[in-house]
Write a structure and sequence with these properties.
Chains A, B, C, D: Its EC number is 2.5.1.54. Four copies of one chain form a homotetramer. By secondary structure, chain A is α/β, with parallel strands linked by helices. Chain A has two domains: about 60 residues, Alpha-Beta Plaits; about 260 residues, Alpha-Beta Barrel (TIM Barrel), CATH 3.20.20.70. Chain A is about 35% helix and about 20% strand. In chain A, the strands form three sheets. In chain A, strands 7-8-9-10-11-12-13-14 form an eight-stranded parallel beta barrel, surrounded by six helices. A four-stranded antiparallel β-sheet of chain A has the order 2-3-1-4.
């Protein structure tokens, strides 16, 4: 870490700061320029609080050299992490995974039917929301436990591992028991109590990027889970919030090479929530594969206009199947399988 | 609500949609133009799901006429709500309230000392974080219960009601017992399980706007709490995330007249988190009062560089006192007291 | 267009508004609901000013049904436009074009050398800036006319058509004479005088999206050129400004299917400026092709660290060649050639 | 400036970089840490190109210590600049100026009438657009020269200096001859050819912040004008683009203290374009004065719904007069006059 210090500062305050940094075990590198003093801090600065440093009036600027994350950092873990979701491997040079299913679970029969269609099309996991984060308190909030059990039934019938969103730590036991991959939604990406709870279990976690979170904050959210002891984190980009109005969110595909450079974690893409429009899903899915993503999570519904939520972004099974077929060809070009 | 329908659409699908809307008790107003059909929906559309409507391929556009919130809507509650926080009235034409205190509670003695300084300066409530949402798992996470009890002690000594952030529903009993005004932080603004839990108690809630949430989503978060039965919501703007780098966030003061026009709830401003820089706090505080805000929540610390978090944005007590004095004069100009 | 009108409005004002709309040749469709009046306007509303409508106090909301663009609108021009750039066809089902070259022209010899390398790698046009929009007045501002003439020489040697940025209408003659494809940079996307000047010539224009412009504003900028009489517009996405810090801009690839749905114009992608980092260029280029883009414009320099500007985002020729090879394979998958 | 260099880099490349930096007259401060080398550059780095530095593969990060602007920098010009606009002084401790007038000039009679009303209300300058930047080519583009001459007539009648927007350098002579304060609009903030042309005249310039430009880029735009020799720059904040939909733009009032800290230039606020809604103008105007702004520029029209553009954001004269009266009282509180 590098501190830029004002030359005309209170030297006593500066000395106090330097003493405190040395007490934290950091080596200091002092060099005085024409207008500023530059203070290099050598040692582990991961836990050093930038805001605390800035509260010293002598400090003008603080520059991080080391990333603030350790467990997720590729620097200290050069090989790709491969996350095992009940037998399906995600990441590394494993097959690209495609997860399909409805936004909300709406009943046992329908989720079983969709699961079969997802499987027939080439999908390897089933998604479905039982607890739904809805902007309006008057909107359908999900079937809850009944929905989870309907998914379990669909898994029994098709063999597909199931993915569902956990909204609150008090339901974690239910999810650990029944769900194969526990999703943290965008709105809860910085629900730190939830992240801490997930750090204590060993189920794989699908961590969606928050609507307005930087890549660094997203990796730090993964770090929360990993620091707690759970190494099984898969990152999922689902679009960020911008000024653009023709799409619901702006899908940021550049995260794919960035996540792969900076972390060792798998990264998958959710084109359905990113765009909010089924007509854009195929193009964005193929782009994600070409960019090097480890997987896709796509909304599929046999009757989008019958869906209880987010029908506008759901693909019909035939469209989903043809998307997978094209994706397979693109995967081959970049040396992967799907 | 108005639906714009493609003229060359599948008329059977359109008929199906219209039947379903009529079954929901809505009256339909059909008018066919040169290129489009316009369908006006008359009745209570609050709970109608825009995405469900968009999933019909015949629907091109959906336009809300009525706001999606009811309980918070000034239309149905023309007079200002005044929230009573243990005797301090917030909103309406009541006195403008100034809340002061440190980012984190750091010990009983120091919080009591700061509380006294806040009171001497003219502050009427004490803020202090006992559970801290921190981007890094390696940063100080707050003193927890011990911190809450230290604040209780500070209240005993000074009589100031206390404000603290609740991060998880499982601590709600502790907060209801000890805290006068329960804060929901920006990162939890759409933690819907937390909002629902707060709807079931009757403590006042200070609801911060999320980093990237629209005003409408923010009001909908208030609506969650109010729909559950708790009418005591105070809104708090604390800056939104933009591309600008000279400030931590961009303080959006236009929310003040907007919130007052659309809702009957009080609105207060947090200039400390918005700017991240104590040097900007006074100017933004005076601006907030001039804009018509019902209060301010400001970080105050007797020794910002000793603070365990966010020292960079904390005011020293003397500066806080002089800010209040200036704010009082501005309040008078716009016909309020402070 | 649909106007939502307050029911308790001044009916005289409403009548005045309706009279004025009828005088503009619009047919009005009046329907009175429980809380609002809905006024449908039938006819050509392209030139109707939303802000003028909103200035009537009776008007609560204005909703566009028809897009505000005509010439660029696919609705009125269903087949793809194919733009001919000195023999290179762009758009439709034509070959995907790859444009390569340095950020700035730095001399005749070096631009000729790079042009040859671009051609050898499979590039079909040469880019190079002679007039440079630089944030700092102290930074290199481009070689000007000398740079244009150096590019002309490179074209003579290699046969590659040349692309360069025009910053001001007063240089338009120079560009029409020498340049094959005139670029409008992101910062000038809404320099309307420049757009109008380009509407009067018949050279193809490469119109970059502004840093914070919506897709609709971007299409409207194309409409300016087309309304003036020049139909030869190619759109170019180069990233938008968001809060993210790990990339210079956020590349918005969803524009590809959106532009193709709403307009008949070709769309190409600039991954170099979007990311600002050469390490991300290949992944984003392949993604762009998979998404259906009609071309790429990529910074190439034989010695990035010798470049006078933007070296950080330039590819070396060998990397550029390998990118094209992979892109070719992906193009085949989606039924295109490169 | 500080370079963070990878420890395992190619030392030859690093040596080449260091040689080039020394040739530019910079002194180098080399310090080797555990994981990184830190290279401090001492000397004038204003013109050093960050992207050029990043193009060296050994360079990991570049941190500016000195701001990239000199002429606008308060560091080198501690006293406030006071800009004289035909006798009206702007900045420093001079009176707060209020500029009023219509969005577009619509005729001689009406601009003269509005000018008189602006003056009667307490406004000291008249604004009015003769050349209009409009998103649509089909919208009214302004009266051009005729509009400028109508404003000249209004100045003759009322004595108010006039402000109007220049969109293209080829009209600069007309503006220098007739206009007292030349406005650069938000969309042209980085039209560098226009900025350069304005640097060569000595008329005061009102430089609006771009829709998505950082404060630093905005100051750099002022630096362009000042580097050319014209020191008479007044900055004007008019809202930035964010995800929020209830306002047209988000007014960023924190620029007021920031601009005053970093530059010596006056800063005025445009609440009309920022909000797009006349109902919000008064609250934001009072807030701007409380924050320390040197002036306001407000849209005023005697008949907003008759206005040819932007009527939705225009105040009627009576409302404008009452705003000025309240503003005057707030100015007194902070020790200024209006």
């Amino acid at each position: 870490m590098i501190l830029t210090v004002k030359k005309d500062c209170d030297r006593n305050e500066l000395q106090r700061l330097m003493n405190q940094l040395e007490k934290k075990g950091l080596e200091l590198n002092f060099s005085e320029g024409a207008n500023y003093i530059v203070l290099g801090l050598v040692g582990d600065t991961t836990a050093l609080d930038v805001d605390w440093l800035k509260s010293f009036t002598c400090v003008k600027e603080v520059t991080r050299v080391q990333a603030p994350y350790k467990k997720a950092n590729r620097l200290f873990h050069p090989e790709d992490s491969i996350i095992d979701v009940s037998g399906i491997k995600v990441g590394g040079h494993e097959k690209i995974v495609v997860i399909g299913g409805p936004c909300s679970v709406e009943g046992e029969q329908i989720i079983c039917d969709i699961a079969q269609e997802v499987k027939d099309a080439g999908g390897v996991m089933l998604r479905g929301g039982a607890y739904k984060p809805r902007t309006s308190p008057y909107a359908f909030q999900g079937m809850g436990t009944e929905g989870i059990l309907a998914m379990v039934k669909a898994r029994e019938k098709t063999g597909l591992p199931i993915v569902s969103e956990l909204m609150s730590a008090d339901k974690i036991d239910e999810f650990v028991e029944h769900v194969d991959l526990i999703q943290v939604g965008a709105r809860n990406m910085q629900n730190f109590d939830l992240l801490k709870a997930l750090g204590k279990v060993d189920k794989p976690v699908l961590l969606k990027r928050g609507l307005a979170n930087t890549i660094e904050e997203w990796i730090m959210a993964a770090e929360y889970i990993m620091a707690g002891g759970n190494k099984n984190v898969i990152l999922c980009e689902r679009g960020i919030r911008t000024f653009e109005k023709y799409t619901r969110n702006t899908l940021d595909l550049s995260v794919v090479p960035i996540i792969k450079e900076r972390t060792h974690l798998p990264i998958i893409i959710d084109p359905s929530h990113a765009t909010g429009d089924w007509k854009l899903v195929e193009a964005m899915s193929l782009a994600a594969i070409a960019a090097g993503a480890d997987g896709l999570i796509i909304e599929v519904h046999s009757c989008p206009e019958c869906a209880w939520s987010d029908g506008a972004q759901s693909l019909k099974p035939a469209k989903f199947a043809s998307l997978i077929e094209k994706g397979r060809a693109i995967a081959q070009v970049i040396g992967r399988e799907l």
